[in-house]
Amino acid sequence: MERTLIAPGVHLSCDPAEKFNRCRISIHFAFPAQRATATAHALLPLVLERGYADCPDMTLLTKKLAKLYGADLTVDARPLGANHNLCVSATGIKNRFALEGEDLTREYAALALGTAFHPAFSGGVFDPEAVAIEKQMLRKSLEDEVNEKRIYCQRQANREFFGDSPAGVRQEGYLEEVDGLTPEALTEAYYEMLRTANIELIVLGCDEASTTAVKDALLAELSAIDRAPLPRAENIAMPRREPVRKVEHFDTTQAKLCMLFTLGQPMQPEQLAAVRLAMALYGGSVTSRLFLNVRERDHLCYYCSSSFQSFTGSMAVNSGVEHADAARAEQAVLKELADLCDGPITDEELEDCRRGLLAGMNGLEDTLGGIETWYYMEVLRGGPVQTPDDARRALLAVTREDVRDILKQFTLSVSCLLTREEGNENG
C-alpha cells in the first residue's frame, strides 16, 4: 500500500490489488469527537446513505447501483478513541469485466464523491423528510440499547470509565437530543466535518490512471471548500484509580458483567504485537485462560472474553453469568490475570495462541475490506504503518516476558454488573 500527502490534511492510499476482480473507493473523514455535535454526527451517515444530488431518493439510487452490475454504496460511522470517523465507500467489478466497455471506476468515484460532497439538499439543507425518517431510526436504536443487555452493560461501563474525557463523548448520540435535531443543525455539522476533518482517500483495485483520476476528482471537490483541518485527537489512556463498582438491576435470566482495565498510559505502536498475543492468551481465543478456565472448567460464565482498544489503552472483559455467580466470576477474571502475570505460561498455550493469531492474520488480505481496514487502522494509531507481513514478523518475536510486561500494566478501573435485585427469582 502506497500512501502520499496530496493536500493539507488529505492523504491518498492506493494498491492495484490485481488478484481481485473488484475495486473499492473509500473516503474516510476523521475528526475529534465533540459533545455538542455528537448526535448530529450519529445521524449524518443515516441521512447521507439515502441518496445524493444526482440520485436524491433511495429508489433512484438502488436502480443506479443495479445498473452498475450490483455495485455497493455504504456510509458508516464509528468511534475510534476520541475521534469520530465517517466513511463513504463504493465497491464494484473492475472495468475489464464491463460488458459494454463502461468506465465503471469513474462511476464508482462519482457515487462516492457525490454522496460525500453533494447530498440531497432541499432549500440548502438536508431534506426535512429524510431527516425526520432517519431521526426515527436513530431514536429507536438508542431506545433499544437497553434491550440488548450486553451492549448496554459495555456502554454503561464505558461511560463510567471515560467520564468527561474526550473518549467519553457518546458517539452513538444522545436520546434526549434526537427530537430537537433540525435539518439546519445537521447541515451545519456536515459542513463542519468537510472543513475540519482529516481525509484519507483509499483506492483499491484500480490502475494508476484511474487512481489519478479519482484523486484529481477529490481535489477538485476540496478546492471549493474553505478547509481548515484539525489534528486528530491523540491516543489516550485513563489514569489508574481505585476500582469503581456499578450495579444496575434488571429482571433478566442472565446477569451481565463488564470489567474495564486501563494501561494507565497511551499504548505505543511497538507494543501492539505483545498486546495481541496477551489478549489471545488471556481471553481473546478459544485456548485462552478465560475461556478454558472460567467458562469451561469452573462453569462460571456462559461466555467470557477480553478485548483491547488501542486508541484508549483499555481492556474490556465481558461475560454473561448466573446472577448468584457474579462476584465469583469477577474474582476468577482477576485471578486469571494475576496468574498470567506471575505464574507459569506453558510453551504449548503460548504457541497455540500465536498460531491462532497468525492464521487469522493470514486472511487479512483476502478481501478489499480487510486490506482497507488494516491500513486505515494503522494510520490512525500513528507511528510507522505496518504491513500484515510486518505484523506477523513482530508477533513471531513476542516472548512470554513481553506478554507479562503488558499484562502487569493493566489495572481494574470499572466493574459494571447488570443483575436482578435480591429476592427476585423470576426470569
Largest sheet: 6 strands, mixed
Number of strands: 13
Question: What is the chains' assembly state?
Answer: single chain
Distance between the termini: 53 Å
Q: Percentage of helical residues?
A: 40-55%
User: What would you call the structural class?
Assistant: alpha+beta
Overall shape: it is globular
C-alpha Rg, in Å? 23 Å
Helix segment tally:
15
Strand content: 15-25%
Give unreliable regions as ranges. Answer: none
Order of helices and strands: EEEHHEEHEEHHHHEHEEHHEEHHHHHE
Biggest sheet strand order reads: 1-2-8-3-5-4
Rounded mean pLDDT is 95
Provide an overview of this structure.
By secondary structure, the chain is of the alpha+beta class. It is 43% helix and 22% strand. It has a six-stranded mixed beta sheet, sandwiched between helices. Helix 1 crosses helix 4. It is globular and about 65 Å long. 41% of the residues are buried.
Labels describing this entry:
427 residues, alpha+beta, six-stranded mixed beta sheet, five-stranded mixed beta sheet, 15 helices, 13 strands
